[in-house]
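(Deposited chain)
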Amino acid sequence: MADGNRELQAEEEEEEEETEAEEEDDDEVTESPGKAGPAERSGHVAVTDGQSMFVWGGYKQNAPIRGYYDCYLPRDELWIYNMETGRWKKSSTTGDIPPSMSGSCAVSLDGMLYLFGGHHAQGNTNLFYMLNLKPGSSMLQWDRIECKGTSPSAKDKLGAWVYKNKLIFFGGYGYYREDDNIGTFEFDETSFGNSIYPRGWNNHIHVLDVKTFTWSQPVTMGKSPSPRAAHACATVGNRGYVFGGRYRDARMNDLYFLNLDTWEWNEVITRGICPVGRSWHSLTRVSSESLFLFGGFTTDKQPLSDAWIYCIDKNEWIQFEHNYSSKPRLWHTACVSKEGEVIVFGGCANNLLAHQKAAHSNEVLVFSVQPKSLGRLCLEAVISFREMLSSSFEYLPTHLLHTVSQCVGSNNLSGS
């Protein structure tokens, strides 16, 4: 169940992942709407269509199995979070279900979830999967896609940008491949004696055209970022931004963007104060002018709970005050709702490398980073004065009454 990569010590850090015994669950998963949510987890993926957040994979702490404390989450489960009402629903998936994994990279485009890479019980993978999330789909069925062209090497903890009909993947930690020669690969020397296939960091760019499912690897210009993993990426217009990540013993706080039309790299030298270097954080587009940075893990292995707004026009970082300063998170996910709220789910609340002491979370943190819409303000007012207004609820349109009823049950309107 565990390969040689699993024998490394915890202090060798996140790029030599915790041993994760695969937990299979072949039973039919029924829908369970309500406040009950998914198990605590880290290293999962989450995508959104603006109304719902879809969560898959990751691992959690469990009773020791062969001396190890972590296990993967069931691979056939997809958890769906209603971003307006705060209600969870668990659904089963069928088809070519990916193996249980952590550190995969997932994006959403035109109602489809695309999943690449990750780490499972036998090591890294470079397989590519697709799941139809469009409303009205009769079932949630995975398809494994056999793409044309030369795929990226097997890796995890990479980042991605979505631009037009293309998925652009950057960096990661995984196996070396001789034909992957556009860019830089640096071996992790600590992996040499612990695996048949040593692993390392890279700064490779790979592009997948989802119309033809063909891989390509562009030649970039300008000063490219160093190899890295556990970084965070966000797309704004034709720019693919990347912040931080780990390379060798350093967790960085550099900021770059790649022009997705010309393939030119640009290092961004910001004005004023900057966030501390980190990995396992999230970077989320919240408007055409700003990015939201939250959490992560520092070089000295401290979990972070700070939040920052990067203002693109002003080229400066502004620290964002919020109510979750006592709730650090790393290797979590972050998605933006149609109301402009950043929804953070899961992750670890302390030193993830402590194995049996790791505090994985299943909590949802809601950051209100944009002004609320008039409709949202009205809904919050109705909830606040629900006892006074309850006798008039029957006059609401059916869809609004349903939303009010669900919000009363979830109480998910406090924001940050």
Confidence is low (pLDDT under 50) at residues 1-34, 411-416. The radius of gyration is 21 Å. The chain is about 5% helix and 40% strand. The longest strand covers residues 199-209.
